[in-house]
């Protein structure tokens, strides 16, 4: 696992949190929710690729 992945996740989290607060203060609750969901989807797509690599490594290690 690379440390860059953690920095990417942290940056996305900070960006989404700021956008969420700005949109909530502007009264755009629906757009704030969509921004939050988009951030979650982006982070999940990053993490899923790492989990796939983990399962591949486990299969290789145990010859499955």
Description:
By secondary structure, the chain is mainly α. The chain has one domain (3-61). It has helices spanning 3-25, 29-61. The radius of gyration is 16 Å and the shape is elongated. The protein starts with a helix and ends with a helix. The model has no long low-confidence stretch (mean pLDDT 93).
Short description:
It is built from two helices and no strands. By secondary structure, it is mainly α. It has one domain (about 5-60).
Provide a count of the helices: 2
Distance between the termini: 22 Å
Low-confidence stretches: none
Overall average pLDDT:
93
Radius of gyration: 16 Å
* Biggest sheet overview: none
- The H/E string reads HH
Number of structural domains: 1
List keywords for this structure.
single chain, 64 residues, mainly alpha, 2 helices, elongated
